Amino acid sequence: MNQYIEVFIDESKEHLQAINDHLLTLEKNPRDLTIVNEIFRSAHTLKGMSATMGYQDLSDLTHKMENVLDAVRNEQLLVDEGVLDIVFHAVDDLEAMVLDIVDGGDGERNVEEAVRMLEAVESGGQQSPKTTTSAGNERKPELFLDDYTKNVIKMAEESGSHPLLVHTHLRNDCLLKAARVYMIFEVLEQAGEVVHAAPPVESLENEEFESSFTVLLITQESAEGIKTAIEKVSEVDYVHVEPFKEKETQPPEGPQVQSQAEISDESAQKTKKSTPRGRTIRVNIERLDALMNLFEELVIDRGRLEQISSDLAHQDLQETVEHMTRTSSDLQSIILNMRMVPVEQVFNRFPRMVRQLSKDLHKRLELTISGAETELDRTVIDEIGDPLVHLIRNAVDHGIESPEVRESKGKPAVGQIELKAYHSGNHVFIEITDDGAGIDRTKVAGKAVKNQLVTQEQAETMSDSQVFDLIMESGFSTADQISDISGRGVGLDVVKSTIESLGGIITIESEYGEGSRFSIQLPLTLSIISVMLVEVQKETYAIPLSSIIETAVVKKEDLMNAHNRKVMDFRGRVIPLIFLTELLQVPVELEEKDDYSVVIVRRGEKMAALVVHSFIGQQEVVLKSLGDYLSGAFAISGATILGDGQVALILDSNALIK
Amino acid sequence: MTEQKEHTQKVIVFQIQDEEYTLPVQTVGSIERMVPITRVPGAQPFVKGVINLRGVVTPVIDLRERFGFEPFPETEQTRIITVTVADMNVGLIVDAANDVLDLENDAVEPPPEVVGTVEADYIQGVANVEGRLFILLNLEKVLAEEDVLHLERMHG
Predict the structure, then answer these.
(1) Looking at per-residue confidence, does B11 or A630 come out higher?
(2) A597 φ, ψ (degrees, to nearest 5)
(3) CA-CA 20 to 30 A from A489: which of A244, A260, A329, A359?
(4) Which of A13-27, A189-203, A498-512 has the lowest mean pLDDT?
């Protein structure tokens, strides 16, 4: 049972997400019935699944929602904001129920409110004028044939067969529609060849149709004979058979029929697309984590073996170890790839959130998302959701102004928020841009002085970006009024610390009055990183390769002094030297040399040269935390275990460059 | 059996200087011989650094220095006792560890207050058993975090 629940939960979530996404698209194109059909499909599957699993409330509510959607689909009901709000409300309830099941609950919930509203909409909808459908007489779906089918018909006509349009209506209380469809097709296929069906055959077999369907049959039998044969199948209400004429295949004018045709087209494509999906399997995340942990152990042992084999200088051993190293690098990239998930998983909840926020705050907003397919390590994905929620809420609440204010400033009334993700080098960038009020430098500086984060003199000499960084210091909130949306105690400082704990960086750009941009730089993966091992006196440290520009050896006499600090020239730029021996308080055991070995690192635009004693080399290492007890140690982002079994600390060059 | 549990507790006995200290057995993970320690810059002097404990990076504390005794060169007897407190794994360097004992709860007394000595809040109590004096440690206090890192000072 348990394994089914997992599948059920996964799939329910997917379907609910699909419903959410499609509802939002529908809101933009309320006339597009293709979307309604998509929503209907998801809702229908969800209903079936939850009924099978015995979640009655879930199934009931989905059923009610389906009714409303059906009314929309049959154009008995017009999509407007009121209808959408109610459907969204129902989806919220459904989500809550699924979450309850995730937490081990029984998925029961008082959904009377949602049901009552849905019923009101449904009955209201049926009373509304329905011009397109006259009661008792089913509309005959039009067929839209592709060139191939047309050719088949043409050839059939040449060989003496004729095309017939068979319109079958099953009784409304028919229970096993798929079985009846099967039986009818059995009859039809004995008589001739079915070249087209609306809805498509796949949908018919999955009972994804109301009660009637139309097929195009090429046969030598008479229309009357076919009609009698089908009527022998039980639970068939009535059959209508007519000769098929080519002109009907022309998509007639009018948006309604057009969309009908698109529906069948779309669903046919969908079913085709879904076939290759069978080649993936679902794997429990815990298993992937276990695999990763085991692999990390292997990487440590690999390092050890490399060292032993180079010490022993045994050729066979060396070759074997080299081969193992290559194989395990391949293995590593595969495992890391398996853990990569598209950032879409996090992004897809934002459109709903922004919609709700804009309603709550009476602001008009448009959210554009790009790069949702960008992939990130699962561990990063798990952590990045909350900070992003916070930043988006922040942009909506503090960034975007109310429509009146915007208009008075000569901006469009609708505020724009852009969420963008992209790859660059070994990093993934996520940017949140708004065209709102921007950050008021004077206000931020004033508040920082008041809260004693900086002195008045410091505030005056700080650059804009330094001032903006202040809003991410703890205990800083710029909102004039504390609203429900943001500013409930946890602030941007939490966002900053979360991102930094992921090995990322957050930067703020802002133009007062024009908008702000929060950029987050994240590492692709957290667990295995490439580092440069260096020796400082007799201690070994690891510097992440991602922050290294290059290594160099500089002569003492080439160094310069600037304001009592040693600096060096690096390709025309003056960069400061950081003496790791002093900074890390390493016990001095070696004599000073005449030249310095330096590792030039960067953080954003800034650079610094770290003075070390020798370079050991480049290595892939497994990043380990220092443990809760020492977490937060200055300039150390973690530790790793070297080939000889010893622990080396990983330097955090972000902390070294101020 | 449950009766007994309430009256006695199993403790690990270890030596520092000439004194005998005890820790409840359930807090102790393992007792290790000395291994190379990697220094962590910016930590208090009694935090000796981190070790590789079967693949887990574990911080170690020199209890001698934590308790303000003179440093003592490492010997064959020196051990690292790994303990778990509040979900943290920490190693404690001690002069020797060689005994497990059932301690009567009745034998435990509050730490004696002596004028002129440093108040040590990490001592939970003392027990006098057949002429041997055992000092019961309060691990949380021994590991009190505010003592461990003085990061702010390093930043300044």
Answers:
(1) B11
(2) -90, 125
(3) A359
(4) A189-203
DSSP conformation letters of A31-76 = T-HHHHHHHHHHHHHHHHHHHHHT-HHHHHHHHHHHHHHHHHHTTS
Of A284-298, A541-555, B7-21, minimum mean pLDDT range = A284-298
Question: Residue B99: what pLDDT?
Answer: 85
- Topology given in CATH for the domain delimited by A342-523: Heat Shock Protein 90 (3.30.565)
B88 Cβ under 8 Å from any chain A Cβ: yes
Q: What tokens appear for A128 in the block?
A: 């509304």
**Looking at residue A251, what is its pLDDT?**
43
Mean per-residue pLDDT of chain B? 79
The minimal CB distance from B38 to the residues A297, A634, A646 is found for A646
Q: Where are the domains of chain A?
A: 2-127, 147-272, 285-339, 342-523, 528-656
A629 Cβ under 8 Å from any chain B Cβ: yes
Report the residue from B43, B56, B143 with minimal CB separation from A633: B43
Q: What CATH superfamily is the domain A528-656?
A: CheA-289, Domain 4 (2.40.50.180)
Q: Residue A276 burial (CB < 10 Å; 0-12/13-18/19+)? A: exposed
**Tokens, residue A24:** 């939002």
Q: Strands A192-198 and A636-641: what pairing?
A: unpaired
- B150 in reach of chain A (CB within 8 A): no
Name which of A121, A31, A109, A36 is nearest A85 in CA terms. A121
Q: Going edge to edge, which strands form the sheet with A573-579?
A: A548-555, A595-603, A606-612, A573-579, A565-570, A560-562
User: How many CB atoms within 10 Å of residue A557?
Assistant: 8
CA distance A521 to A431: 9
**Count of the separate structural domains present in chain B:** 1
CATH of domain A2-127: 1.20.120.160
Would you state the pLDDT for residue B13? 92
* Fold annotation for A147-272: Alpha-Beta Plaits (3.30.70)
Q: What is the complex's ipTM, to 2 decimals? A: 0.80
Please tell me which residue of chain B has the smallest CA distance to A293: B55
Tokens of B11: 């403790």
Cβ(A483)–Cβ(A399) below 8 Å: no
Do B52 and A585 count as a contact with CB atoms less than 8 A apart? no
pTM given for the model: 0.52
Q: Which of 11-50 (B) contact A at CB < 8 A?
A: 36, 38-43, 47, 49-50
Q: What CATH number is attached to the domain comprising B27?
A: 2.40.50.180
